[in-house]
């Protein structure tokens, strides 16, 4: 029985061994029309500057000649010209080659088909491709089977193949690659994109991969090729079915006689499709612009020259009044200038005599602020500079003065600030601090001024704040996912005795009442009953029992029939007795509810285990759709997937209704008071809120366990992201459940093991775990049945357990003690700490003041009545009005209390 | 719920935070590093903070000394310009205020929130009213009870109400078109906008069916008219006193545009033309034939990029691309003319429906600021904003608004250029300025709105926009109430913003402001030198 779901998993993993989400290249698709030089080497740059310098002197000579031409603007050149602007703009000219890509599917014989992909434009064409297998969901690619790969193919990662296209024949401009398809394989579709290694451009189909379906039910995302439906866009693609009539008849016949694997392929038809492509080839050129101010005429003379071949037209305008809007200057204009739509001027540049480019001169009024232009090479080719117009700023006589002044002023002030700082560096900071204080008081309450008005004012503000806070809390409870706000609440929380499912009374201490081996005896409930009195006298208030349902695994975490409560831990009656017994001694009991996944009873027609039996006889609609192993038909999972069993789709109303009913039944029937929720990473916390609202537990805690962050194997000091994820989950439950403080456990590990006790204070001087942010919802622990016991997935540093307990049993949060530790040599020490916590009435919202967090010692004072230190270093609580006496003491830890 | 304990400590934290913000602005980053250890705030506060400091200082280099100018919105220290005082501030209610079944959602929260806003001095509330909620069941069966209940609360609290009649659906929260319309849409193709992949946009009817009797023999315009009439009579008691404005939904998201951007990616592409429904295509065909180019009427541009592709990835929008060609002018003129005439139709229907009631009407434009720096302005083209012969594309629209004596709502007033990702070649500031100018030329009154999610520096930018003497904005709607809006951090910033619009109800506050000004000016004296070198 228990091996069955695993078997089905293995079956699939064999098929999908190499599968991996196809993510690499897709994000790198670069549009093939970049008109900016994103990469030119520094050598090239130097070169082009050199040329342009050389060219400009040549060009000045020719200016003198042109200047005498009577019908053009007179260009003055005087020796005293000041060069006010000089720039060499690199530009890229793009030449466009047009052609087509074609895709042809044709039948060679029987089940052998051939797919050819070709291009009519020369280039270093590579087909980047992969396949989808029957039953795959999502957009993942897999590597094709070996026999499909044409010679010369290279495997890219484990999801794709690259095959170069070859020239069909010498002298032919077509490039092509052909892939043999054997329809007996389980390939459902072929995916590809075409890559031109010359330009690095990728060619896709409608923004997605090309997809050639080989079976009927390939989901159409608009990128199918050769699908009967054809293409949405009108006139975009030529769709020329070849010999359609003949082939379809033939294929029809064949598929009828063929084996099962091709049953779904009856729609396969030969096709030939082509689509136009254009390839752009970029040439690097440069435009150099020099602007000079002619001192005699106070005109600005701009020379533009470029090494662009062919006719170059400058499309230009001038700027006035500080705007970069194009305006038409007054005449005269340079030679070969025309007016364009009253918006701009067009001047054709003169070809240089040596044919190496062209140049032009523009003489403009001295009062103008600048010249804007773009270059036009032909009707379809325009060049600009990095997406913007070229802009040549002129210095007007007034602006230059202003600018100089400004610079001077800036220099002066820089200087004076520096002196300021030197003279009174300390005074300065003091003053700032005072300012902050004043302002903080000032913003809302102008105290000491007109007291009456201020009081009214203050009252109204308080009222506003109260109302806003009320609105906030209600809105928030109906809106999922929040992050930081909760932290505020944490800081604002005050102790109260109100019972809430997230906190219980606030004074709870948990006992985990089992370990990984507890199922072995078959009578764990009975064994535990015998300990009830002892656990109560130790001071525990809540007991966490193992998962009670029928389970595929003996420990209970692979539940099957949720209404069958006979398990390896005992019968349902023994369970009920146990709960009664603990209630008698005043201990509440939590049931371990596994809601994320459930093992199936039956196989579906495909042989996949995804049909449930028992009272909750769900079908595959109850299973999330994104775990391919179980062919769920539900929605996508709202969390992570647990891969060994079907993950339940909590977004289904019927599922939620059934779960709520079940939880209520467990409460009623067994007498549970609350829940420990297994693997809550697997589904959205909002559903948990729903379940908590329905079952109204006294206390609930979720297991949200993921990895802390490490850099080069060393744990990061800042684990805010980790605890944020847990806080987010609690938030999603609207605080209806607490969560195990995995962050604190992780940080304790490193702090204790490596003697790095400084880790135990976050930058704000608060505990670094969840307990520092949302103490009332943090269930602190150092070990459980997974991390420790006989599994030891993440065992607390051995021998240092008591330091861990000295920490969690004195700190806020709700501490949980592991069964193995209670009944070990640590028993007396744990008992002493438990008794201290109860005696001093420490609770989940107690206030911690961290007194010391150094390399070898961490010390804190809790609620001003308990002091503690862990670590080998020395610490004594401060001598003051309080009278500290040692309460518990052990290896590397010490706890004091006020008497 | 642990409500009552939240109030005070939270507010104190915010106050402290505000003080930092002001000082940071004036003293640069020295303060931050010195003080951050003592700050009681959240984990990512410091980074956000730094942004503000940098932003301000960079501007101070550009402009004159800001401190002495008293221009900074958070320095409540100078006599404010007149224009700010005249701005009426509205706050939007959540989109799902009234549920499908005409219940008022979060009733308690809204009531508390409205009281808070009233005390704060907010003028009124914007209420989105969905066609799909009111006329849900059957044509002509209107159910106003939910919205009437909200109007009553608003009236009781003493706020004004701006009703937004929404003829579109919404994705988040999910509110569709009326069920009976959706049924028609399923049975008959072509009433929705459709893109070239044949995907329908089911949250708004296509402009091409405006005057086609597709809704049980009635045209959408007739149905909208019926809706307006019903609204008018249902809310007659509130008209003019509580209800002081009505916005007409002009298209997807209530904005006058084609649904060209349907994927809400951070950096979206150019968008796609939505002219592939049956009616659009036949209109295009007719137009092409009438202009003597029948071949141009066979479909939309073949070389336009896909939704999430960059505009330059194909030739339509590139410089010298099809958009500039004769064909481009043909297509874009036609495409935008449908948009303009749709605006005209809806606004005339509304102005005749609401004639005789002294409530100003309003229509909303989109702010298509992405790719604004490209010559082709692809986002505007795909959304339907184009004008041939170099005429101003917004002026034509403004003219229609003027004709129907309608105000224009411009969103995105909180967006500033420097917070846009440079790759998007976006410029919200210049686009807002452009639209404002077009309105001014046509004598259209402009109202403002922010974008729906808070952006860094948003409040400062809004104040700058409202202070613009050039085009007076007398009404600003802040979007939108909800958990985020009332979250301590945001609500506090909002409070400060309101105070800066000098709408704080306490008139006795005036005197105190002066006192406060004194304190602050001492601070600014110290701050000035460091600012200039910041």
Protein architecture, described:
The complex is a heterodimer of chains A (899) and B (534). Chain A is an alpha+beta fold and 899 residues long. Chain A has 18 helices and 38 strands. In chain A, strands 1, 2, 6, 7, 11, 12, 13, 17 and 18 form a nine-stranded antiparallel sheet that branches. In chain A, strands 22-23-24-27-28-31-32-33 form an eight-stranded parallel barrel, surrounded by five helices. The model of chain A is unreliable at 1-80, 228-264, 397-451 and 479-496 (pLDDT under 50). In chain B, helix 1 runs parallel beside helix 3 (45-62) and helix 14 crosses helix 15 (428-442). Chain B has an eight-stranded parallel β-barrel with strand order 1-2-3-6-7-8-9-10, surrounded by six helices. In chain B, strands 4-5 form a two-stranded antiparallel ribbon. Chain B has 534 residues and is α/β, with parallel strands linked by helices. The longest helix of chain B has 28 residues, at 326-353. In chain B, strand 4 and strand 5 (200-205) form a beta hairpin. Classes of the chains: A alpha+beta (899), B alpha/beta (534). Chains A and B meet through helix 4, helix 5, helix 6 and helix 7 of A and helix 1, helix 2, helix 6, helix 17 and helix 18 of B. Chain B: This is Beta-amylase.
């Amino acid at each position: 029985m228990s091996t069955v779901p695993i078997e089905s998993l293995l079956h699939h993993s064999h098929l999908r061994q190499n599968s991996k989400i196809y993510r690499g290249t897709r994000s790198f698709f670069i549009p093939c029309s970049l008109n900016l030089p994103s990469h030119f080497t520094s050598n090239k740059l130097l070169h082009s500057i050199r040329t342009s310098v050389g060219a400009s002197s040549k060009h000045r000579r020719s200016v003198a000649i042109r200047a005498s031409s009577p019908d053009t603007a007179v260009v003055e050149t005087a020796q005293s010209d000041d060069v006010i602007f000089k720039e060499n703009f690199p530009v890229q000219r793009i030449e466009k080659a047009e052609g087509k890509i074609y895709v042809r599917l044709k039948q060679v014989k029987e089940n052998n088909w051939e797919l050819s992909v070709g291009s009519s434009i020369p280039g270093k064409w590579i087909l980047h491709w992969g396949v989808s297998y029957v039953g795959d969901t999502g957009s993942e690619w897999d590597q094709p089977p070996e026999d499909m790969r044409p010679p010369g193919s290279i495997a890219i990662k484990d999801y794709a193949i690259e095959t170069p296209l070859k020239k069909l024949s010498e002298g032919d401009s077509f490039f092509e690659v052909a892939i043999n398809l054997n329809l007996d394989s389980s390939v459902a579709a072929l995916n590809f994109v075409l890559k031109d290694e010359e330009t690095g451009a990728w060619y896709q189909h409608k923004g997605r991969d090309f997809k050639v379906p080989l079976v009927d039910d390939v989901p159409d995302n608009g990128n199918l090729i050769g699908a009967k439906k054809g293409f949405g866009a009108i006139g975009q693609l030529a769709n020329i079915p070849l010999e359609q009539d003949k082939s379809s008849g033939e294929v029809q016949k064949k598929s009828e006689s063929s084996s099962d694997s091709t049953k779904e392929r009856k729609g396969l038809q030969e096709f030939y499709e082509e689509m136009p492509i254009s390839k752009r080839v970029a040439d690097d050129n440069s435009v150099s612009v020099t602007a000079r101010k002619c001192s005699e005429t106070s005109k600005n003379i701009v020379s533009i020259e470029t090494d662009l071949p062919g006719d170059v037209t400058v499309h230009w305008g001038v700027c006035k009044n500080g705007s970069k809007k194009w305006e038409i200057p007054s005449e005269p204009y340079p030679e070969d200038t025309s007016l364009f739509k009253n918006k701009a001027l067009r001047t054709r540049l003169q070809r240089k005599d040596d044919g190496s480019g062209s140049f032009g001169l523009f003489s403009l009024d001295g009062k103008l602020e600048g010249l804007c232009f773009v270059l036009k090479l032909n009707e379809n080719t325009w060049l600009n500079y990095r997406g913007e117009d070229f802009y040549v700023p002129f210095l007007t006589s007034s602006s230059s003065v202003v600018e100089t002044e400004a610079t001077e002023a800036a220099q002066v002030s820089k200087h004076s600030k520096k002196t300021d700082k030197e003279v009174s560096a300390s005074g300065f900071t003091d003053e700032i601090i005072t300012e902050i204080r004043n302002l903080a008081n000032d913003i809302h309450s102008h105290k000491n001024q007109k007291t009456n008005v201020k009081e009214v004012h203050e009252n109204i503000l308080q009222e506003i704040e109260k109302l806003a806070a009320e609105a906030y809390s209600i809105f928030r409870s109906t809106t999922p996912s929040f992050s930081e706000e909760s932290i505020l609440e944490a800081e604002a929380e005050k102790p109260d005795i109100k019972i809430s499912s997230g906190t219980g009374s606030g004074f709870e201490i948990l006992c985990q009442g089992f370990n990984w081996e507890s199922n072995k005896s078959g009578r764990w409930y009975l064994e535990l009953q015998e300990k009830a009195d002892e656990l109560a006298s130790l001071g525990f208030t809540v007991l966490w029992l193992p998962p009670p349902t029928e389970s595929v695994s003996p420990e209970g975490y692979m539940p099957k029939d949720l209404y069958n409560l006979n398990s390896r831990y005992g019968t349902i009656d023994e369970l009920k007795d146990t709960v009664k017994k603990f209630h008698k001694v005043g201990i509440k009991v939590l049931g371990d509810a596994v809601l994320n996944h459930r093992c199936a009873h039956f196989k579906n027609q495909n042989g996949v285990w995804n049909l449930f039996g028992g009272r909750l006889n769900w079908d595959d609609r109850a299973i999330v759709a994104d775990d391919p192993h179980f062919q769920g038909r539900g929605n996508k999972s709202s969390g992570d997937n647990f891969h060994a069993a079907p993950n339940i789709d909590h977004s289904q109303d019927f599922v939620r209704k059934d779960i709520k009913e079940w939880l209520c039944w467990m409460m009623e029937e067994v007498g549970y008071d609350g829940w420990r929720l297994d693997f809550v990473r697997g589904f959205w916390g909002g559903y948990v809120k729903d379940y908590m609202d329905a079952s109204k537990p006294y206390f609930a805690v979720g297991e949200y366990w993921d990895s802390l962050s490490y850099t080069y194997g060393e744990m990061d000091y800042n684990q805010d992201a980790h605890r944020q994820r847990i806080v987010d989950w609690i938030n999603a439950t609207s605080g209806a459940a607490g969560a195990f403080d995995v962050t604190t456990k992780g940080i304790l590990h490193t702090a204790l093991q490596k003697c790095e006790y400084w880790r135990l204070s976050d930058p704000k001087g608060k505990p670094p775990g969840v307990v520092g942010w949302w103490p009332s919802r943090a269930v602190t622990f150092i070990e459980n049945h997974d991390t420790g016991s006989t599994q030891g997935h993440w065992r607390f540093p051995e021998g240092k357990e008591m330091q861990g307990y000295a920490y969690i049993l004195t700190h806020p949060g709700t501490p949980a003690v592991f069964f193995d530790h209670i009944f070990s040599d640590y028993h007396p020490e744990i008992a002493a700490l438990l008794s201290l916590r109860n005696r001093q009435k420490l609770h989940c919202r107690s206030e911690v003041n961290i007194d010391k967090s150094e390399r070898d010692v961490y010390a804190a004072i809790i609620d001003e009545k308990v002091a503690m230190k862990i670590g080998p270093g020395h610490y004594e609580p401060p001598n003051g009005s309080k009278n500290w006496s040692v309460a518990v003491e052990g290896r590397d830890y010490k706890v004091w209390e006020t008497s | 719920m642990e409500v009552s304990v939240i109030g005070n400590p939270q507010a104190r934290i915010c106050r402290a935070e505000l003080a930092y913000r002001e000082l940071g602005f004036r003293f640069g980053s020295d303060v931050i590093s010195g003080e951050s250890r003592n700050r009681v705030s959240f984990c990512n506060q410091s980074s956000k903070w730094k942004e503000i400091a940098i932003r301000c200082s960079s501007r101070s280099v550009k402009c004159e000394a800001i401190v002495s100018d008293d221009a900074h919105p958070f320095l409540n220290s100078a006599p404010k310009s007149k224009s700010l005082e005249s701005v009426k501030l509205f706050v939007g209610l959540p989109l799902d205020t009234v549920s499908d079944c005409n219940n008022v959602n979060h009733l308690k929260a809204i009531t508390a929130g409205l009281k808070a806003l009233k005390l704060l001095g907010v003028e009124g509330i914007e209420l989105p009213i969905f066609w799909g909620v009111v006329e849900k069941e059957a044509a002509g069966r209107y159910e106003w009870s939910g919205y009437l209940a909200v109007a009553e609360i608003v009236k009781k609290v003493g706020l004004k109400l701006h009703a937004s009649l929404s003829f579109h659906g919404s994705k988040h929260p999910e509110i569709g078109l009326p069920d009976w319309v959706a049924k028609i849409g399923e049975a008959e193709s072509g009433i929705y906008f459709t893109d070239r992949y044949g995907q329908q946009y089911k949250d708004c009817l296509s402009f091409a069916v405006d005057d086609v009797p597709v809704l049980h023999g009635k045209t959408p315009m007739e149905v909208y008219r019926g809706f307006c009439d019903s609204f008018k009579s249902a809310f007659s008691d509130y008209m003019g006193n509580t209800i002081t404005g009505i916005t007409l939904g002009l298209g997807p998201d209530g904005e006058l545009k084609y649904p060209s951007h349907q994927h809400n990616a951070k950096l979206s592409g150019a968008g796609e033309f939505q002219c592939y429904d049956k009616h659009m295509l036949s209109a295009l065909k007719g137009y092409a034939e009438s202009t003597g180019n029948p071949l141009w009427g066979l479909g939309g541009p073949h070389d336009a990029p896909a939704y999430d592709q960059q505009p330059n990835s194909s030739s339509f929008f590139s410089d010298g691309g099809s958009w500039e060609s004769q064909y481009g002018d043909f297509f874009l003129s036609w495409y935008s003319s449908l948009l303009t005439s749709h605006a005209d139709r809806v606004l005339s229907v509304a102005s005749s429906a609401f004639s005789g009631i002294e409530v100003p009407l309003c229509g909303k434009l989109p702010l298509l600021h992405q790719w604004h720096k490209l010559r082709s302005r692809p986002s505007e083209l795909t959304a339907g904003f184009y004008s041939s012969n170099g005429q101003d594309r917004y002026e034509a629209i403004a003219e229609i608004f003027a004709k129907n004596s309608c105000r224009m709502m411009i969103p995105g007033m909180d967006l500033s250029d420097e917070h846009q990702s440079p790759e998007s070649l976006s410029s919200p500031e210049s686009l807002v300025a452009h639209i404002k100018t077009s309105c001014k030329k046509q004598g259209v009154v402009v109202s403002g709105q922010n974008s729906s999610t808070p952006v860094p520096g948003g409040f400062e930018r809004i104040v700058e926009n409202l202070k613009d003497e050039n085009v007076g904005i007398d009404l600003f709607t802040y979007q939108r109430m909800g958990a985020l809006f009332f979250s301590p951090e945001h609500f506090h910033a909002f409070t400060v913003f309101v105070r800066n619009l000098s709408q704080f109800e306490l008139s006795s506050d005036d005197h105190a402001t002066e006192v406060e000004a004194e304190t602050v000016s001492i601070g600014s004296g110290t701050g000035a030198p460091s600012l200039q070198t910041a």
